[in-house]
Amino acid sequence: MPCTIEKEKQHMAASDTMRQVRKRIKRNRKEKQVRRRDWLRAYMEEPEALEMLPQRERIMPPGERGRRQAVLNAALATLEDQGQSRAIGPIPQGEIHSGIVVEVSTGLCRVHWRGRELLCPLRGSLTAEDTGLTNVVAVGDEVVLAEDGDGQGVIEAILPRRSALARPHVFYSHLKHVIAANVEQLLIVASWRDPHFWPELVDRYLIGAQRNKLEPAICLNKIDLAENPLEYYAAVQPYQALGYRVLLTSALNGEGVDELREYLRGRSTVLTGLSGVGKSALLTAVQPGLELRTGAVNSESHQGRHTTSQARLWPLAMGGAVVDTPGIREFGLRGLKRPELVRFYPEIAAEAGRCRFANCAHIDEPDCAVKKAVTQGHIPEMRYDSYCKIYATLED
Ligand SMILES: Nc1nc2c(ncn2[C@@H]2O[C@H](COP(=O)(O)OP(=O)(O)OP(=O)(O)O)[C@@H](O)[C@H]2O)c(=O)[nH]1
Ligand SMILES: [Mg+2]
Ligand SMILES: [Zn+2]
User: What spacing in Å lies between the alpha carbon of 375 and ligand 3's midpoint?
Assistant: First the structure.
């Protein structure tokens, strides 16, 4: 098997180099006839000789593209193999009446089951061992219950997840913590002020959504606190230009809440963002009966006070469900390698092909087309800044 992959990589590298050579030949047909013949001969006789071509020629060293592809495939493979699509515990034969976990606390889960809400312990044999995860059960999980005599239930098994929002655990960073299971969309909530809009965190969540295969959208809340709407229009424009859905809201005066309601209708959505941005306030505005606890932001630090302390799933009367989560300051991207980061910045990737060095990281290399595009205003500075900050935290 490894042998086949190796062959495939070599083949990819060779055909890619050939393609580059052909392109080059076409471009230079008129003025550089002699050189073209030299290249071709060099390639036919000694493919490695192409390594000696100046970097300006935009020809990657043999094997470079294959190497990049292998790194990327490895990254994607680890994402797919998150141990989340396996059932945990024995699944009974025949018809299953599963319940949905709406809240998890130590040793106990609140489960919606046959129209009732039960507090259920987990069967002791269920463990997260070998899953690469720190938690065996998460909000949104579908579980199989065994009823005991007193109308209470015990969680016997956790059904395979269709999707999940997971992030590296804060302390055991080689393991992941599932924030919410079986959700379709990730609503990244930020506030314009109190706490201040923080693009790097938004970008981290966007990357997290893509890695978790969830559809992201950005909600910029507290727009009532802006002096001039032009300020926040400019901040969200780069995201709109990339095709991300952006909702502009105020839970205080109701602006944008109708649009938010339509976005949530009939879908399962997890809300995430810093403490104090207004996640719980927005959900209460969408469905007034919810009356979720909200907490004032500290007037000096402009930070929230972690009012929501547990993730909780709420079914929506109009159809769909939302998971309100506690504010998260960090969204680690462990496992993502530096060369892969650019994939998550399409506007940077679009310019990267024109850099002098094929392996340009766009940080401090000479003749970097990306940096030039930033100076010329073709790439938003805000996005480039967050690219550099995130790049600095990743492994090679
Ligand atoms: N001015 C203004 N204040 C808002 C808005 N939305 C929420 N707030 C206030 O911001 C504070 C924090 O709101 P929460 O809903 O508790 O924030 P949260 O994101 O749920 O915070 P955590 O539960 O700590 O993660 C509360 O005092 C809200 O009243 C808004 O659109 N405008
Ligand atoms: Mg909250
Ligand atoms: Zn560059």
Answer: 13
User: Which atom of ligand 1 is least distant from the CA of 225?
Assistant: 1
Dist. CA 59 → ligand 3 center (Å): 15
pLDDT digits (tens, 9 = 90+) for 361-393: 999 999 999 999 999 999 999 999 999 999 999
Domains defined along the chain, listed by start: 2-80 (no CATH), 84-182 (2.40.50.140), 183-324 (3.40.50.300), 338-393 (1.10.40.50)
Confirm or reject: Cβ of 278 under 6 Å from ligand 1. yes
DSSP sequence for 209-266: HHHTT-EEEEEEE-GGG-S-HHHHHHHHHHHHHTT-EEEE--TTT-TTHHHHHHHHTT
pTM for the full predicted model: 0.80
For ligand 1, say whether the CB of 284 is within 6 Å of any of its atoms: no
Task: Please tell me the distance between residue 106's alpha carbon and the centre of ligand 1 in angstroms.
Answer: 27
pLDDT tens-digit series, residues 73-108? 444 444 444 546 678 888 877 767 789 999 998 889
Does 304 score more than 80 pLDDT? Answer: yes
Instruction: Report the candidate in 343, 304, 293, 348 with the shortest Cα–Cα distance to residue 327.
Output: 304
